[in-house]
Each structure stands twice: as C-alpha cells, then as structure tokens.
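Final report, closing paragraph on structural work. Over the funding period we assembled a curated collection of sequence-structure pairs, and we close with a single example.
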Amino acid sequence: MKKINAKSPLGIFLFAIIPLVIILVYSGIRLDLTKEKRYTLSDNTIKVLESVKKPLTVEVYLEGDFPASFKQLQSETKFMLEEFRKINPKIDFKFIDPIKTKMSQDTLMAMGMQPSILPDVKDGKISQITLFPYAVIKYNNDGVSIPLVVQQAGIDADQQLTRSIEGLEYNLVSNIKNIAANKKKKIGILVNQDELSPDEFQGFVHLAMENYDAGPIIPKNQTELSLEDVPLLKQMSALVIAKPRKAFTDNEKVILDQYIMNGGKTLWMIDAVNAEMDTLTRSKKVMPFPIDINMTDFFFNYGIRINPALVKDVKKFALLRLVTGEVSGNPQYTSLPWPYYPLGIAENNNPITKNINPVKFEFPTSIDTLGGRKNIKTKVLFESSERTLLKQVPNYVDLKEISSVDSLGQMEKPSTPKIFAVSLEGKFNSAYASRIERKSYPGFKTSSPENKMIVIADGDVGRNKVIKGKPLPLGVDLLTNEQFGNEQFLRNALDYLLDDSNLMELRNRNIEERLLDRHRITEEKANWQWLNLLLPLAIIGLIGGLFFWLRKKKFG
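Its predicted structure, as stored:
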C-alpha cells in the first residue's frame, strides 16, 4: 500500500488538522478567532473569578420556548458561564424555565425581576410571550437579580440584543465581584451644606446601597467639617456632595482637599445658579441668580470652572407637561419642549455613559476645562448640542419661552456646545501645598496617589421627584411617562470611582454586527435551500466515487 506523504495536503489534513481538532474537542480548549475577541475573558475578569472563595451559583431564567433572538442571548450567556466555571470550579450555573417550574409572576417580581412581553406570530395568529430575562447570583446566603437585557430607549430589537451581549461579561462579573466581596466599600453623603432632602435623594441612596455601604456624613460640631470628622472621612472610599447651597468655609475646603490627597474619590453635583421648577410653575416667571459656594479656586486647582450661566439646548431637550386648556372643568395637558431641561446623550465611547437612556438635566450650567492640568486626564461625559444658547443671570425665566424655544431673549447669546459633566483621573496636587492653611492639618499631603473625581454642573441630576410625599424612582417622570438614564448614569459613576479592578473598561467592548442581507435572503432563498440540500450529497458522492476509482485502479 502506498504511503501518504506527511507534507502533502492530505497528510497535513490527516496528521495535523484532525488530531488538533480531536485534542481541542476533548480538552475543552477553544480558539477565539473573532476580530473583537468576544469569546476571550479579560485578565481583570479572571482575577475577580479566581477571588471567589465559596460556592457561587448563577440561576438564569432563560429557558423555554421564546424567540430566536433570545436563544442567541441564552447561548452567549451559557458560553460565558461555562468559561467562568473553567476559571473557578466553585462557580456553577443552571438555566430555569419559570413556566415549566410553575413559578408565579408575583414571586419573580418579588425577586426584583420585571417581565418582558413579546409578540409571537404563528400560523397567522398573534399571541404574547412573557419572559423574565434575568440572572440571579447566589453566594453565602445572599442573592441579587441582574437584568440580562439592556433597557435603552430609541433602539431596535437587534441593537438591544447586540448591546446586551456586549455588556454581558461586565454585567455578570461586576455583580459577582460585589456579592463575593468580603467587605463593602463605604460611601459618605455630605449633610451640612443645605443639600437635597432625604426624600429627594432617596433614589440615589437606594442605588448606592445595592453594592456599597452608604450613609450620611454630619459634622460633629453641627456647624462645619473639622479635624474631628477626619477619622470618619478616612473610612469612606468615596464622598458624594449633592446640590450644596451653603458656602464651604476655608477650613472645610482644607478638609476636603486632604480627603482627596489621601485617595478619597469624590462625586460633585453642583448648582451654580438657583432656579427651581416648582417656583416657576407656581408663579409662571422666576429670576434665577448665581450661587456662590466658595469653591471656584478649589475646582480651578483641578483645571475646571463651573460657570454661573444657564444652558438652553434647543435641539436635545426633555418635554415639560403643562396645563394648556380646560374642557368641562377638566384640565387639558400638553407636553411641550423645554430647553432648560437639556438631555445628556452619550456621543463618545465612555464606559460611564455607554448604552444608557438620555440623562435629564434641570437648569444646568456649564463646565470649562481650563486646558487641563499636568498628570490629570479630563474626559467629557455629557455636553449640549451645537444649537445651544446661554442665558446670563440674574435674568428672568418665563414659561412663555416654550412658545419660541430657539429665539434669543434678553441677555441670551448663541454658543458652542457646553459641557455638563466631566471625569478627572490621575495624580492630583493639593490646592494648599504652598499656603499657610497646610499647617492646620496634621500629616498634610501635597499630592495624591492615582485618584478619580466626577463633577456635574447640575445639582438636580441625582434628585428624584416626590409626589404626595412619596419619592419616585430616580429618573422617572410620571407626567410625561418617561424613564431617563439618571439612575444608571450615577450608578456607573460610582462604579467608575470605586472600580479597583478596572472592570468598567469591559463596558467599552464592541461587537460588530454582521447582519445578513434580508433582501438577498428573500430573493435567493430557494437557491440557497437547494444548494444546502444537494452540495453535501454531491461531496459525499464525489468522495465515494474517488475511493471506488482508487480501489478499482489498485485491485482491478
């Protein structure tokens, strides 16, 4: 019998490719040949998975009869969890069909899951399918429900699926990290500068407490932050300052400066102008005025300045629902454009703002980046559109401006896009390094380790509405029936500030959509069906004929 040459195409196929395939199949090793490496776990993910010390179970409620798009999400989730289990055998998972197991919707909703209701067309009949695309992570007698589908307005079903798959690794591993952490990080909420009331800030507190320990920071002397408060501040990984309206004293600024120099992260929500919608609704006209909280030099040190001028965006804005008439004693409501409520729409690939609903700002001002500072990276999170107007204050704001949103009023001028929010990252230098105030703080530090800060030029971005004494979820507008992205934005902001594992970069993962040409599918459907049917038979027949010919030639 003639020997097969190992260097021939047939020899390479028999002695190299086939053994390699067999080894890969039985060893479980997989090769990721995708351009974006969508099936390769990041090094940071692997470190988090390896840190899990006790058994952890992920229950995925994606099992049963549902559309093909959800089948793809199910397949991607199963693959991801299989990779997790290979890294750490203590991590296990199972898929559950809530219909088959007869779990009631009330039980699932009590676990924090909201149903997704989809149309199903079969044999010309339209019915509805109720799904609960969630995963429940259980660890050490604790559990957390996480949505597997991105909730973002203004995108179609295909985009929603793609973005859900893009965020799958971050979604799963970040929650695994949080639930498996031995100790939750602490977040302090400053309560001393006439900030938002507890009812107005309840939505933010709830989202912060999902993954962190959040609590108030109240000065011990009931007047201002002092050295007595430093031990408590040192326990806080991050400090939140939401809509301060009382000026900070010079002593407080030194305390905050040294908190940052010692590695403390800060989230600032600052109003530079006093303008309240409640007052405007009652009086139809209000005169906003600047608020001086004595922090201009403090922020200047980090290369930013918050300007006391209202930003009107006549292109990207939220709607304001007002009474515009009356029929038989019943008020008639209309949703009208309100340029003082600009929308923050992510237009750059930033993990804090990616794949979230538009963020609603209320009477925001703007941030100037003053050419940056050495060792500090300044990134714009949200900015207005190219059709922006600036209103100098003090100046009247009138509800009548709704009728002509893009016309220039008194003391208004067209402007370039204005920045609403920025993130700062790097090694910060103390604003008091060469000032006499440094002597008042024991162990004064002139610079910080690698640190982060987020500054937002709107104190109401973290404010939830209160209806009849009942706080609403953050970002919900009952009058216009809209869900804005304020909650997700601030959740991402906290995760960014406190992300020691650098997992937030996973939110920047992009999966290229390689969609089929639906027009060609319709036109060439029959041709491809016949090809798929006959081509395998032809190949088998050709191989059989070749072997028959070789056998006949050798033994004939």
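The two ends are 14 Å apart (CA to CA). The chain has a mean pLDDT of 86. We thank the funder for supporting this effort.
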